[in-house]
Amino acid sequence: MAKYKSHLLICGGTGCMASESDTIAETLKAELAKHGLENEVQVIMTGCFGFCEKGPIVKVLPDNTFYTQVKTTDAAEIVAEHLVKGRKVSRLLYTDPTNKEHVSDSKHMGFYQKQIRIALRNCGVINPENIDEYIAREGYQALGQVLEMGAQAAIDELKKSGLRGRGGGGFPTGLKWEFASKNKADQKYVICNADEGDPGAFMDRSILEGDPHSVIEAMTINGFCIGATKGLVYIRAEYPLAIKRLVTALGQAREFGLLGKDILGSGFDFDIELRYGAGAFVCGEETALIQSMQGERGEPTVKPPFPAEKGYLDKPSNVNNVETYANVPVIFLKGHKWFSAIGTEKSKGTKVFALAGKINNVGLIEVPMGITLREIIYEIGGGIKDGKKFKAVQTGGPSGGCLTEKHLDTKIDYDSLLASGSMMGSGGMIVLDEDDCMVSIAKFYLEFTVEESCGKCSPCRIGNKRMHELLTRITDGNGTMEDLDRLRNLGEVIKDTSLCGLGQTSPNPVLSTLDNFYDEYVEHVKDHKCRAGHCKSLMQYVIDQEACVGCTACARVCPVNAISGERKKPHFIDTTICIKCGACMEKCKFSAINII
Amino acid sequence: METIKLTIDKKVIEVPKGTTIYKAAKQLGIDIPVLCYMELKDLNIENKPAGCRICVVEVEGRRNLAPSCSTDCTEGMVVKTHTMRVINARRTILELILSDHPKDCLTCAKSGHCELQDMAIKLGVRHIPGQEFAEMSTYRMDTSPSIIRDLDKCIMCRRCEMMCNDVQTVGALNAFNRGFNAAVAPAFEQDLDKSPCTYCGQCVAVCPTGALTEVDHTPAVIRALSDPTKTVIVQTAPAVRVALGEEFGMKPGTIVTGKMVNALRQIGFHHVFDTDFAADLTIMEEGTELLDRLTRHLGGDKTVKLPILTSCCPAWVNFFEHNFSDMLDVPSTAKSPQQMFGAIAKTYFADMMKIKREDLVVVSVMPCLAKKYEAQRDEFKVNGNPDVDFSISTRELAHLIKEFNINLADLEDEDFDRPMGESTGAAVIFGATGGVIEAATRTAYEIQTGKKLEKIDFKALRGMEGIRSATVDFNGLPINIGIAHGLANARQLLEEVRSGRANYHAIEVMACPGGCIGGGGQPLHHGDSSIIKARFEAIYREDAGKPIRKSHENPYIIKLYEDFLGKPMSEKAHHLLHTHYFDKGVKDIYI
Q1: What ipTM goes with this model?
Q2: Reduced to 3 states, what is the DSSP secondary structure of residue A346?
């Protein structure tokens, strides 16, 4: 085996691949060959590093140099300077926004300092397409341990760890496994829910792309614990890279005897198949997922019976989320005590969030439960973009709610988020600033649920549509105060009566903004004003008669001839014609056009 | 049996484990409103998608409201069915459903029978908030020979889907689209006539609203009646007379044969005949065919296929043409009674009355919607003129009687006209599952053995179980008989036959659960299967009261053969009374 003195780790996640990280890798290899270093330095495509804001990322080992926003054209310099001459390419290093200094080692970057990476432990570290690298990082050892300790002991260990489902529900994983293990059946199933559907969320995708073996290992453990010989991964077809890496990993695991008959000589048989989802959000709900896997229309069914009792093909089944699985091997390796020491009283371990929105450091983060929003936003996230004022943070995706300044110091875990009117969800976290209109934000999320409702139950099918219509009336300036009452009533009834988790949470963005930003709703209704300047119908472009010099530039650029006036005399906008495109304002050199 | 004790509205009740809150409440006399839920208990049919959410109730300790139709009772559960939270939720949900439902109730075919309308009345909805700016989901109308689909009125109760897929295994209907645009339709939103639909009409029979209705033939019937150049005759199917009374407030199972004949005469039909006459004729042909096949088969003729399958039910014919197209030589070639009647009416009767074929209009009154389609089949037309011109359902006849201002209840009983109004008890029982094969057995037994039946009633062939079988002793020759009602049961039986696992000599199939008495054109049962049971019992009462109970003893049938047809399965009989089947199996149409 060749021994290398340095390694170049390049992010091979979907995000960085879109910025041609694969070409960068090829170019780096070519450059290394030019310098005759192909046997000295190894180039490895890894999973996601998480710091997507600054991708593509190239990390140099052993000195841990973290190059950001690398382009193909930078490859030659990295090789020539860093690897040949031993000089870091400082222009590619991360710059700390607070003191404008270069930070070379990721360990010292604010983005990483507060993170604890358990589920993401191998992402950005190993080559996900090489089982040896996973094994070198203690991969499949947990499986060996579990096979020796026995199913019930393993379930007990998991129960003691306090691990809860990371897909959003937060149900204790060990308990779920125990239910399935106790239900007698000739065949049981282990199902991995990889139908990640929250807009902007990519936790599961990153894990599958960056560390597929951890999920395979955990599923096998799950199978052994409940007595299932068959595992299925329900993954959306829009994740081609994750599918490719998963298929590769499955092949390798079979080759190594870690899947298939008589695993590690234990007499336990287990194998995994893939099922592709067509991209319906509701299929992330476990009963709908099972329906979809059975070839039926992806619609939820009534619970109970729960899948642990009657699931896939009516057999006891365990459905667990990707991130939940990624936590499992570590718990067995390090013990439940280690795991349960992290987090809060009722929420143990860490949670992966996809941090996005008006924040400096967009990316994928894994933080201990109990961290505050303030720490996430200001320390990890590096604060609000462009020095704007923080307004709210939306957690839990389309089913979550908006939290405000007063929640910034709340320790976040499953229960505290619920108590604040939001939820953990699968881990979307979108930061909003003063330019965001809260009514429009609620409308945006509701639009998503209206689109994604399966239509089975009437409150979700019709109610969400009606709520969306009401919000549209409000943002169009046609709302009434009764509409606000109707919104609240509809929201509460939909939550209270919908069949599945989708409908039971879909009004959250509306209800939580009604709770926390009622003033903004009232402004829209009574004053016909959108303080964020987002709702077009509530805006008016006017020309400041004092400032206007009559240059006619605005009148000429107006596409609908709404502006009139004589040369060298102040102009005037006919608001009944104006379509609020903003072209005049952009054109005006004298700042004479204002929005009121 | 394990029982569970719970409290509903402060009343304590003990119920068997697995009982839903809805059913437990019902036992206490608490009628929780339901919309999508439907149960036909005696037929083992239940629809509980828990989709409408009208039936929600409050359960102490539960975060959200529980759908009572599909939530099982648990020990110590405390349920409240009418708290303000429940009442508000129920009303809000109904308002939502109504906000996406057309308001043309005045002219809707289901008006007065609509369960959504009933719910709006029950909950006293007077106003739908925000209706002025509420978008409605709209779809294109689809009119097939039997059924009209107006999905604007679909409320996604999924009953039709359950009937079509689970009870009938036809698979013509399934939900399509998502969210607000979701509704139920054939695959790829094809028209029904391009789907494997059999027109059994069970979807129509359970649709709570006007989304699924029958094609109305009554305007055409009225036009014919008002045309002085036409002679308009009518035939009524056996199952109609035991159900029609329900439309006029009579108890289910009331027999209104005589009143119905009187009403039809008052409406203006020139001759009021009975499909039962043709049912006796069917027995002569089908029974003879059975004996012929049986004799040849026992004689070692390998080209003869057994079992013989009945072919009276047009939905069943459609079903095997779609699904068992490899077995098209197995069913009896005998036409259905409706079509035999039409064929005889437009030849024998027309000749007798010296009426030109095109001036004779044959109307049938059927418990069935597939009969509308059957009447339009090309093989049942002569130079484009159909043997049966119009087929109206029991419900349509009721409308007609009401429109003609006739008070059915007060009418004197009258008799059918002759010759095609005379019938036997054997013909009457065609209306219930097992009836056709019992009628055939009565005749075939006597012809085969040459002996008189000591007991006319073959009770072993009667009942409501989905699949039944019995062996009848034909003087030492055991004849194995199979019976199925509901197409899922028929499929199961036929698959057993196809695979050689079952050994039957004759099989009766009726597409609708219960047979014709539960047909898609009957007065709506609204989920009350005791109505179907009452009709079932009435059919056998009517049979028992008939002076003649075996088809081959019908004097007018005997005369028909003497004067016109010769003998059963004669060349003339073959030409007029037998048919052939077509392969309608799904080939490559979707590929």
Answers
A1: 0.93
A2: coil
SS3 B327: helix
Distance between CA atoms of B510 and B96, rounded to whole angstroms? 39
* Cα–Cα distance measured from residue B155 to residue B152, given in angstroms and rounded to the nearest whole number: 8
Please tell me which of the candidates B64, B100, B180 has its beta carbon nearest to residue A496: B64
Q: pLDDT band at A380, cuts 50/70/90?
A: very high
Mutation to test the B interface, candidates A285, A480, A494, A497, most B Cβ within 10 Å: A497
Residue B16's CATH number: 3.10.20.740
| Number of domains chain B is built from | 3
Range of the domain at A458: 438-527
Are residue A80 and residue A192 in the same domain, yes or no? no
DSSP structure class, residue B177: S
Q: What is the DSSP string of B222-267?
A: HHHHT-TT-EEEEEE-GGGTTTGGGGGTPPTT---HHHHHHHHHHH
B84: Cβ–Cβ under 8 A, 6 or more apart, which residues? Answer: none
- Predicted local confidence at residue A596, as pLDDT: 78
β-strand partners of A321: A193
The 10s digit of each residue's pLDDT in B295-317 is 998 888 888 888 999 999 999 99
Instruction: Render pLDDT for A532-569 as a digit per residue (tens, 0 to 9).
Output: 888 988 888 889 999 999 999 999 999 999 999 999 99
Q: Would you state the pLDDT for residue A106?
A: 86
Min CA distance, B64 vs chain A (Å)? 5
Write out the residues of chain B at the interface with chain A, using a CB-CB cutoff of 8 A. 48-54, 56, 64-65, 67, 70-72, 85, 88-89, 92-93, 96-97, 99-100, 129-130, 133-135, 155-156, 174-175, 177-182
Report d(CA B568, CA B284) in Å as an integer. 6
Neighbouring C-alpha atoms within 13 Å toward the C-beta of B216: 14
Looking at residue B591, what is its pLDDT? 42
Instruction: Report the mean per-residue pLDDT for chain A.
Output: 93
Segments forming the whole domain that contains residue B427: 219-577
Using pLDDT thresholds of 50, 70 and 90, give the confidence band for residue A499.
very high
CA B35 to each of CA A117, A338, A465, B256: distance values in angstroms, whole numbers, following the listed order:
51, 53, 21, 32
Residue B47 within a domain: yes
CB contact under 8 A, A469 and B130: yes
Tell me the mean pLDDT in the region A338-357.
94
Residue range B171-180: mean pLDDT, rounded:
94
Cβ A496–B65 below 8 Å, yes or no? yes
Catalytic site includes residue B17: no
- Tracing tokens 């005997």 back to the chain, one arrives at B558
Question: What are the φ and ψ backbone dihedral angles of A58, each rounded to 5 degrees?
Answer: -125, 125
Rg (CA), chain B: 25
Helices (H), A378-480: 414-419, 438-452, 458, 464-475
User: Which helix (H) or strand (E) element contains residue A189?
Assistant: strand A189-194
Share in percent of chain A as helix, strand, coil (round to 5): 45, 15, 40
In a domain? residue B364: yes
